[in-house]
Input
Amino acid sequence: MHEPLDSTFYDRDPVAVARELLGKTIVRTMGEDLTTGRIVEVEAYLKHGDSASHAYCGRRRRNASMFGPPGHAYVYAIHARFCLNVVTEPEDVPSAVLIRAVEPLSGLELMEKRRSTDRKLNLTRGPARLCEAFAVDRSLDGWNLTIGEQLWLTNGGIPAPKQIAISVRIGVTSAKDLRLRFFINDSRYISR
DNA sequence: CTACCGATTGACT
DNA sequence: GTCAATCGGTAGA
Output
């Protein structure tokens, strides 16, 4: 159980990966601690023509993971918080999928402690909120998500979502017209 | 070292 | 809906 998705899943166009990521399970272990969640909202960031991508201006120290192998994490800091991406396409091709929201499945008590709130809807709704709930920070930047340790994604036996909605991405200040946000239409755990 | 910025969030009207 | 607090990362002096 909780078999990690392998690199062939990630080594594809980020739009395809983004759509198929919906309904998948994110797993985080820290010693005995376990948290899992169902992915309900993602955004794709493209290798070409996407001025909102952190890789748009080329390789930097911060975005180096986006140029790394598929199936690794890209964790960046923004507004004093962290956000988690999965890297797609082959090494040196900078594309990724941002995980924006998940539905908590297990380890709720841990998430409440890490988030300092017991309001279920605020635990994992939003890219930085879910990182806090899952204890994801820059130490996991570049982490290999295919080895099934500490942090990975799995099919988790959860059925694929029936209704997928598409919209423009949230918060970006350029490439505003690109509809690269994918979410499960009827989930209550969507970010605003 | 200082100066700025942001793929956000929480508080507030 | 609006707004600004927050701080890691980066660029530049």
Observations:
- Residues 43, 45, 52-54, 76-81, 83, 85, 98, 100, 122, 126-129, 169-173, 191 of chain A lie near DNA strand B (CB under 10 Å from a C1').
- Residues 7-184 of chain A form a domain with the 3-methyladenine DNA Glycosylase; Chain A fold (CATH 3.10.300.10).
- The beta strands of chain A are 25-30, 33-45, 73-78, 81-87, 96-106, 151-154, 164-167, 181-184.
